[in-house]
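2024-03-11 09:14:02 DEBUG pipeline.ingest accepted 1 chain
2024-03-11 09:14:02 DEBUG pipeline.ingest length=123
2024-03-11 09:14:03 DEBUG pipeline.predict start
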Amino acid sequence: MFREFPRDIKDAAGAMLARSIARDDCGKCFAIIDLLFRQQDQLLEKTTETLTRVGKQAGLSQQAIESCLWDQGLLDKLTASRKFAVEVLKIPGTPTFFINGEMVEGVPSFEEFEKQIKPLLKS
């Protein structure tokens, strides 16, 4: 499962755009998130222009992009999700992983992940 962890309004805007473009298509959402990560420098320096360009490349109209970026309800959901993650789950930042309900400290290697996950797949 994937959850956004927006650190600021720019992160939130990227997440909001990805959700708006993808709707309920997880693969499409991850493709947009990947595209935004690859354009991080432009996203930080020229946020509105970058989000508009990505939105238009994905087929959104200018009005749909603006509507998405001004969606207070969606922003409130992202903010509430982050607050829950920090205050209740005690998530320190990204990336954070949970395996079978247990928080994994640091950023494990693939081999460490495999070592923890393989026994769970057998049960």
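2024-03-11 09:14:41 DEBUG pipeline.report The longest strand covers residues 97-99.
2024-03-11 09:14:41 DEBUG pipeline.predict end
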